[in-house]
């Protein structure tokens, strides 16, 4: 770091917060408001609010075309999509998953009476380590549920080969990975089924929403039945389904959001590059990279903090940023195996050194259309100031000063996003 760098006085050390109101990770991208409202008016005019309406069907076609798959089954969340997919694939007994993921990946299985068995990850890719999966297999294993964390595809070839060799089903949680590719092939085309999230915080959103994509005709048909109580006709129920449907207003938002996908991708790329430049040279912090040869949505800006080199650990840095109204997150701390109900089960005793190592040092920074170039510069300044002032921060900011578990970090005071 150059000695002449002017440092801002952090709010944690008595300065003013860098932002007057909290700036969060996951502030929704909004598409064209007029088009959304036009679609919403159409929904009201038709009085078809849900149950496989025309906008849901259009949304499914658009997602299937984008990914390049035969079928897309829209659901009201990725969690519901994972449940429906797991059941339609016939998963039971044990399924191997990473613990370094959002808790929904595990819960979706647990709710089906399936035991998620946690395998360790690779600290470079943040994704499942195929050798660790192998060690986690048992005679009760029926499948592997991989996660393309941060939109970076997991080792799809190794996982597919392992699944084939052991006669296991392969399902991918692609919640983060819309529009991402691996070796030029789109995520969504690699497993028996893959599940996207269109939650408000995702790159493309339908407020709440998800979708399962597959190239298998029978599987798609089964999942369509399952997301609609199992109804195959007015009075005919052919399986135990749930209500997993996407509604028309969500589809209106999803379609509008999809129309702006290219713009969102460009903003995320711009922000990522600004972060890379702005953080360069700060000791002990490194951005998790995206492969420039591939398509990536760059919707997660993931910082890795090396406490020894930075002089401050991830949590101290996060505390300083929160005081500056930069609501960075520590997804997915501490790892699913250390959260209930898994923590109190045999799964809580499993040793996952790579997962725990990584969960202790990653931090996600705000991006998306709510984050302007000038904001990125301010955030980078705060990170730099925190690292430079680490010894002082350690004395001023005790572990009890910030409640990281605080819910709803973004209250009504959040800035308007474009
Ligand atoms: N698999 C993976 C790997 C996932 O990451 C997820 C979800 C799933 C499966 C399940 O997908 P869904 O069933 O949700 O479709 C958020 C999201 O709720 C969750 O969808 C997402 N992953 C996860 C990574 O992040 P929280 O608990 O952090 O949400 P929350 O309420 O703290 O919001 C995050 C930030 O976004 C805050 O800074 C506030 C801001 N925000 C949020 C909402 C909802 C807004 O500004 N406006 C909003 O409307 O989980």
Description:
The chain is α/β, with parallel strands linked by helices and 418 residues long. Helix content is 36%, strand content 15%. It is built from 14 helices and 16 strands. A 7-stranded mixed β-sheet has the order 2-10-9-6-5-3-4, with helices on both faces. Helix 6 links the parallel strand 5 (141-147) and strand 6. Helix 1 (33-46) runs antiparallel to helix 8 (248-259), helix 2 runs parallel beside helix 8 (248-259) and helix 3 (78-88) packs across helix 4 (103-110). The longest helix is centred in the middle third of the chain and has 19 residues, at 261-279. The chain is globular. Ligand T4K is lined by residues 24-28, 77-79, 101-102, 104-105, 147, 173, 175-176, 197, 199-201, 210, 327, 331, 409-410, 414. Residues 24-28, 77-79, 101-102, 104-105, 147, 173, 175-176, 197, 199-201, 210, 327, 331, 409-410, 414 line the site of ligand T4K.
């Amino acid at each position: 770091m150059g000695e002449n760098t002017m440092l801002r006085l952090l709010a944690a050390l008595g300065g003013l917060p860098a932002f007057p109101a909290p700036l969060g990770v996951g502030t929704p991208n909004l598409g064209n408001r007029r088009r959304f409202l036009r679609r919403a008016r159409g929904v009201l005019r038709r009085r078809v609010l849900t149950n496989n309406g025309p906008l849901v069907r259009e949304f499914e076609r658009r997602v299937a075309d984008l990914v390049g798959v035969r079928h897309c089954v829209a659901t009201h969340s990725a969690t519901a999509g994972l449940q429906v997919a797991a059941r339609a694939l016939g998963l039971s007994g044990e399924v191997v998953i990473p613990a370094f993921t959002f808790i929904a990946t595990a819960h979706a299985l647990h709710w089906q009476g399936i035991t998620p068995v946690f395998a360790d990850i690779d600290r470079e890719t943040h994704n499942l380590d195929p050798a660790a999966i192998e060690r986690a297999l048992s005679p009760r294993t029926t499948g592997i549920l991989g996660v393309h964390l941060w939109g970076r595809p997991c080792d799809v070839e190794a996982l597919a080969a392992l699944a084939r060799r052991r006669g296991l089903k392969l399902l991918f949680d692609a919640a983060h990975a819309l529009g991402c590719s691996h070796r030029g092939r789109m995520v969504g085309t690699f497993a028996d089924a893959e599940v996207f999230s269109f939650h408000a915080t995702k790159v493309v959103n339908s407020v709440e929403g998800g979708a399962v994509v597959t190239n298998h005709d029978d599987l798609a048909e089964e999942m369509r039945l399952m997301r609609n109580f199992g109804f195959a006709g007015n009075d005919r129920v052919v399986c135990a389904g749930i209500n997993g449907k996407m509604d028309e207003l969500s589809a209106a938002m999803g379609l509008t959001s999809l129309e702006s996908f290219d713009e969102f991708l460009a903003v995320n790329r711009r922000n990522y590059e600004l972060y890379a430049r702005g953080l360069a040279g700060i000791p002990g912090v490194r951005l998790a990279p995206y492969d420039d040869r591939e398509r990536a949505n760059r919707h997660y800006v993931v910082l890795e903090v090396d406490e020894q080199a930075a002089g401050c650990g991830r949590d101290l840095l996060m505390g300083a940023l929160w005081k500056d109204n930069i609501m960075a997150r520590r997804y997915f701390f501490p790892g699913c195996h250390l959260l209930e109900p898994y923590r109190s089960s045999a799964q809580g005793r499993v040793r996952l050194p790579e997962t725990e190592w990584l969960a202790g040092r990653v931090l996600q920074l705000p991006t998306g259309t709510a984050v302007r170039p000038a904001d990125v510069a301010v955030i980078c300044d705060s990170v730099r100031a925190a690292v430079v002032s680490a010894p002082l921060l350690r004395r001023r900011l005790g572990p009890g000063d910030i409640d990281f578990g605080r819910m709803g970090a973004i209250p009504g005071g959040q800035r308007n996003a474009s």
